Structures are given as C-alpha cells and as structure tokens.
Amino acid sequence: MKDFLVIGGGVIGMMTACQLAEAGCSVVLVERGRCGQEASWAGGGIISPLYPWRYSEPVSELARNAEEEYAALAAELLEATGIDSEYRQKGLLYLRVDDGDRAFDWGRGLGKPLEVVNADFIHDKEPWLAGELTSGLWMPTLGSIRNPRLCQALRARLMSLERVRLEEEVSVESLRMDRGRVTGIETTRGCLPADQVVLCGGAWSGVLLGRLGITLPVKPVKGQMMLFRTPPMPGGRMLLERVVLADGRYLIPRADGRVLIGSTLEEMDFDKTPTEVARESLRQSAIAMLPALADCEIEHHWAGLRPAAPDGIPFIGEVPDIQGLFVNAGHYRNGLVLAPASTRLMVDGLLGRQPSMDPAPYAPRHRLEEHPQSELI
C-alpha cells in the first residue's frame, strides 16, 4: 500500500491519518506542537454551521455528510481508546433570528425538523435563560461534541495504530521538490522523505505553500472564547443543558455543567493573545442570554485561529502542478463540523476510491484559478 506524510495534527490531519492507516497505508503525521492543541481545541464543538441555511451548497453538503458520521465516530473512539468525546444530541435553540423564512425553506428542503417555539417552550427546556425571551426556533436534532476530548481520543487512536508514526514538536520549514514532484519535507529535526504529502495545516497552510510561490487564499481569523464554571441547580439540572444561539454568539453546555461562550471574529494575523475587550464583550453576551452567569467563575479565556478561505469553502485535493502534494485546509469556522466528510473526500481521492460526493467544488486547481492573488481575503 501507499505511504503518506501528513502535515498538521488537528482534527483534519488526525482523521486523515486514521483513515489512511485503517485502509492499510503507512502514515507519518508531523505536528509543530502537540496534536489537537490549535483551532481544533479552541472551538466550541457544535456539529453544524451556526446558521446552516446561510451557507453555500458545497459547505452544506460536507456538513450533512459529516453530521451523519459523528455519533458512530464518537462511539468507535470510546470503544477503541476509553475516552468519551461527549457527543450529545440535545438540540439547539435559535433566538432572535431575522431570516426565519429562509431557515424554514432550508429545513423543508432537507427534511430537517425546525419549529417556531414560544416563551413557555423555551423556559421549559432552559428555565434559567433570560426572562424576556418570547420566541425562537428549535432544532431538536442538532448535536455537539467536546472538542478537546475528541482531539484526545483521536490522538490516542493514532498512537495505537502500528502503521502511524507521530512526530510532535516538529516544525516544517519547507517542502522538498524535484522536477515538479514533492520528495519530502525539511523540518527542525532534519529531512523526512515522502512522495505523498497531505497538507492539513489550518491557518498555516498558506504560509507553507507560499514558500513554493503558490498563493493559497487561506488566512487566520482570531476567535476568542470563555468557559464558566456553574453550580448545581435545583432538581438535579444543570444551569444550561442545550446549545443556545443569539445574535451570532452561542452558549454550549458541557456534561460536567460548565458553559462555554463564543466567539469573536478578528483579523489579527497570527496573534492569539486574549484581550480584556473581548473578555468583557463575551461576558456581557453570555449574561444577556443566561443571567445567572453573572455570578459564575470565569474559569478560562482563550483564543484560536480559524483558517478562512473564500466563501468558507475548504480546499481539498491535489495542489496544481506539483505531483504528490495535496491540501485539505480553509474550513474557517467549520473545521470540526466538516472534518469527517472533508477527510473522507480527501482520502477517497488519495486512494483512488469512488468519492461519496463531487470533489470539483473543493478542487484547488479550479478554486485557485477563481481566486488569484489579488483576491486574497
């Protein structure tokens, strides 16, 4: 079988390595830090684009396919590693939605259950939400996963596979080339030869390709988030038990009662420094939805870098004019959302299998022609 070298140890890189190894391939995965510690760790874990009816069909198709895989993926990882990714399918409450007609058209087209709900319904589901909420939309099938634990489970799974070698704390300095074909990579620990390289470097993917003179329009967009520690509530309930979304910000409950608030959107290049301005903005958004959070401890405040591509559509496929070099990057806010389907599409192409969906909308050759350097986002 083929040998592969995967650059990047986020969920995209780790799922790619898992699928390749499970198909009988030998894989070396190179990560500049520890696997699962960048954007994959920093996100929230909602298994859907925030407002799914507002996305283009290429993103929507990946999301639909990925959503169908998550329950089985979490169960398989739990059995294989003993690590619970905390997959939960408790639904999502949308508050203050101003394009409900579009949402219902989307839901009817896909057979997604979506309904208008009143204040009684909202506060029956979530008693401690703000009292002035009078209506919203309810999607009962939406799920979430605890992304740091998913990353832990994927890493543990990779470490158990004989055909996978993890090279962590290793920075890739450049790609080695010979007459239009990739031959390996130069790293801080020397050269690693390879004739099949899959670049899954998130926001850093464009930097590495730029050293070859290739402009990949993927840039970092900073997102800041916070985590609240909440007390036990009457009746054995948690302060929040379902995902709630209002005005572009969301609250996500964890199984241990913690509540996460996200997130900001900031174009700050590769700066991941949390700021006091964002901290207060997130706190106020959280309290506006769930007033009791005003008295809860802020346990953690952090930032991550999303890899933004034009229209939020990732680049998936072979890099033009370089044999043996492939890329899967540019998922923007939906890396975790799209990962199972995005990596399956990539691996189908790598192994010459019939793809489960049309690869054309994501193909780098086609996309890079559409978005020349002058159109960098």
Automatic annotation (TrEMBL):
<keyword id="KW-0560">Oxidoreductase</keyword>
<feature type="domain" description="FAD dependent oxidoreductase">
    <location>
        <begin position="3"/>
        <end position="348"/>
    </location>
</feature>
<dbReference type="GO" id="GO:0005737">
    <property type="term" value="C:cytoplasm"/>
</dbReference>
<dbReference type="GO" id="GO:0009228">
    <property type="term" value="P:thiamine biosynthetic process"/>
</dbReference>
<dbReference type="GO" id="GO:0050660">
    <property type="term" value="F:flavin adenine dinucleotide binding"/>
</dbReference>
<dbReference type="GO" id="GO:0016491">
    <property type="term" value="F:oxidoreductase activity"/>
</dbReference>
<protein>
    <submittedName>
        <fullName>Glycine oxidase ThiO</fullName>
    </submittedName>
</protein>
<dbReference type="InterPro" id="IPR036188">
    <property type="entry name" value="FAD/NAD-bd_sf"/>
</dbReference>
<dbReference type="GO" id="GO:0009229">
    <property type="term" value="P:thiamine diphosphate biosynthetic process"/>
</dbReference>
<feature type="compositionally biased region" description="Basic and acidic residues">
    <location>
        <begin position="366"/>
        <end position="377"/>
    </location>
</feature>
<comment type="pathway">
    <text>Cofactor biosynthesis; thiamine diphosphate biosynthesis.</text>
</comment>
<feature type="region of interest" description="Disordered">
    <location>
        <begin position="356"/>
        <end position="377"/>
    </location>
</feature>
<dbReference type="Pfam" id="PF01266">
    <property type="entry name" value="DAO"/>
</dbReference>
<dbReference type="InterPro" id="IPR006076">
    <property type="entry name" value="FAD-dep_OxRdtase"/>
</dbReference>
<dbReference type="InterPro" id="IPR012727">
    <property type="entry name" value="Gly_oxidase_ThiO"/>
</dbReference>
<keyword id="KW-0784">Thiamine biosynthesis</keyword>
